Amino acid sequence: DTEVTQTPKHLVMGMTNKKSLKCEQHMGHRAMYWYKQKAKKPPELMFVYSYEKLSINESVPSRFSPECPNSSLLNLHLHALQPEDSALYLCASSQDQGRDTEAFFGQGTRLTVV
Amino acid sequence: GQQVMQIPQYQHVQEGEDFTTYCNSSTTLSNIQWYKQRPGGHPVFLIQLVKSGEVKKQKRLTFQFGEAKKNSSLHITATQTTDVGTYFCAGPNDMRFGAGTRLTVKP
Description:
The complex is a heterodimer. Chain A is mainly β. Chain A is 0% helix and 57% strand. Chain A has strands spanning 4-7, 10-13, 18-25, 31-37, 44-50, 53-57, 64-70, 73-79, 87-94, 103-105, 109-113. In chain A, the strands form 2 sheets. In chain A, strands 2, 4, 5, 6, 9, 10 and 11 form a 7-stranded mixed β-sheet that branches. In chain A, strands 1-3-8-7 form a 4-stranded antiparallel β-sheet, with no helix packed on it. Chain A is globular. Chain B has a 5-stranded antiparallel β-sheet with strand order 1-3-8-7-6, with no helix packed on it. A 5-stranded mixed β-sheet of chain B has the order 2-10-9-4-5, with no helix packed on it. Chain B starts with a strand and ends with a strand. Chain A binds chain B through residues 33, 40, 42-45, 48, 56, 90, 92, 94, 97-98, 100-108, and chain B through 1, 30-31, 33, 35, 41-45, 48, 50, 86, 88, 90, 92-100, 102.
């Protein structure tokens, strides 16, 4: 199984809503990543978890709150988002952050903030 | 983290023409990875280069890592419409992506 599964695929939320994006992998990978991708732009790194601990936070606003409940799951909790936060949110995993291994990406969650 | 610069931003070619994208870093890279993202899709790993001067081939795709390990290139020979997409390089460890080169191919 070389899949990274993201749910939901699409999400529309209001600026006062609280929602969560979920990401799951069963490859035994110990590094997991959240990216934000706007149209015609590269994926922009947001957070990196290594062995279930947050290792990189790219100065992301606190309205985005990551969580790694176990080695297979990665969540991104959303609260009080702005319309400019609308984007494709990609999750990825790799065997280890510090080692030279490929990253597997999920299909992404397309988020629209209204 | 290490930043990689990528050029060109866009490339439009006639089917059958060749295509090359370049990534450059101001610092030495321990490795570099290449990904392809089809329109509407997610990034998919293509290859990783680790050794100085390394050259790897995948069918019509040729990947090179510079002798100083500060630059890399991806060359596609005789492009096909299936090559359409955005090609990204990514630096080591923290998985930050270059700006990407968007390739369009005219049949």
